[in-house]
Amino acid sequence: MSEKTIVHLLRHGEVHNPEGILYGRLPGYQLSENGVLMAQAAAKWFASRDVKALLSSPMERAQQTAEPLAEMIGLPVLLDDRLIEAGNRFEGLTFGVGRGSLRRPHHWPHLINPVRPSWGEPYEEIAARMVAAVKRARAEARGHEAVCVSHQLPIWILRRKAEKQRLWHHPARRQCELASVTSLTFDGDRLVSVDYAEPAGGLVKRPTVPGA
Hints:
Elements: E1 4-11, H1 33-45, E2 51-56, H2 60-73, E3 78-79, H3 123-140, E4 145-150, H4 152-162, E5 181-187, E6 190-197
Parallel strand pairs: 1-4, 2-3, 2-4
Antiparallel strand pairs: 1-5, 5-6
Helix pairs in contact: 1-2, 3-4
């Protein structure tokens, strides 16, 4: 008989980012006080789950989000570089029109191909590394559940790949809120369902921070 394994993709909590920077892979960006509460809410959501493996992106905000869960279930946090945020040419800048980076003509060539996309890490590459990370997590927790702490874009691209949708999309239509959980259920190695939950939904402020 096949084994049921669930791999949960947990997006990190809110980051302290008062200047609204697209921080991407930049070091030094950590959870805000509200983000810590989000991480705690997510940990409580997993309290009754059969979690046997906990993996995280190496970014500080992801590791901080994993901490309350690691303490609660008594598991080490395994770092996996494949869960890292997507690369982006606008990293370190404010993004948008007005005073944002889009008002500068030298940035415009990076916007010519939204399908790839031309401004950052190709969607297919993001999908491939995230699929590999999920396979590792599934192997670590075979017959049980695993949690992978990652970032909005990589999680959303993984979900679209799993649901056999085209990878390019409108960023405003992503269903991947701060501290949300996207769950992939496998029967053996076969994906049978994708589910979504927002354990910290009541803590989310609008608009959410960029570059998460």
